[in-house]
């Protein structure tokens, strides 16, 4: 089994190689059956600007992890990085926090945060603002456990 330092080095190199492949991120998400269900046309267009995805597991994996999405300059939002964090507190209760997406004016997605609680996320980007059920964030689990370890699958 690789030690943590060697593993980080390999993942860093993988990220660098992936960054040179045009549309790798959007292709990965569009071709994943669970994720593609969430992708509307605008989501796909915005994901063309995705350069890499990184997962950071906190010291104790039981305490959570963070998913970072890195984007090039794009016509949809001002953020260069969008993150979502998953935490378990000492009593085992889950919680979420995420980057506020700074939508550029005229983008319809800036209405995403107004969705009602307990609905399925209506788009990939509403997933960032959906904190309604921290214990059942299936998309986060799919990205961490399925897409991140083997994006070519």
Automatic annotation (TrEMBL):
InterPro entries: NAP-like_sf, NAP_family. Belongs to the nucleosome assembly protein (NAP) family. Residues 90-121 are annotated as: Disordered. Pfam families: NAP (PF00956). This is SET nuclear proto-oncogene. GO terms for biological process: nucleosome assembly. Gene3D superfamilies: Nucleosome assembly protein. GO terms for cellular component: nucleus. It comes from the Eukaryota. The lineage of its organism: Eukaryota, Metazoa, Chordata, Craniata, Vertebrata.
């Amino acid at each position: 089994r690789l030690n943590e330092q060697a593993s980080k080095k390999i993942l860093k190199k993988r990220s660098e190689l992936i960054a040179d492949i045009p549309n790798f991120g959007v292709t990965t998400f569009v071709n994943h059956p669970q994720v593609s269900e969430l992708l509307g046309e605008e989501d796909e267009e915005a994901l063309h600007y995705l350069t890499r995805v990184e997962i950071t597991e906190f010291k104790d994996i039981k305490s959570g992890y963070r998913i970072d999405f890195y984007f090039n300059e794009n016509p949809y939002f001002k953020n260069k990085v969008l993150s979502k964090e998953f935490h378990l507190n000492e009593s085992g209760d889950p919680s979420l926090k995420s980057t506020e997406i700074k939508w550029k004016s005229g983008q319809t997605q800036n209405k995403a945060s107004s969705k009602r609680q307990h609905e399925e996320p209506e788009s990939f980007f509403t997933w960032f603002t959906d904190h309604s059920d921290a214990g059942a964030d299936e998309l986060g689990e799919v990205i961490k456990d399925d897409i991140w370890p083997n994006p070519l699958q």
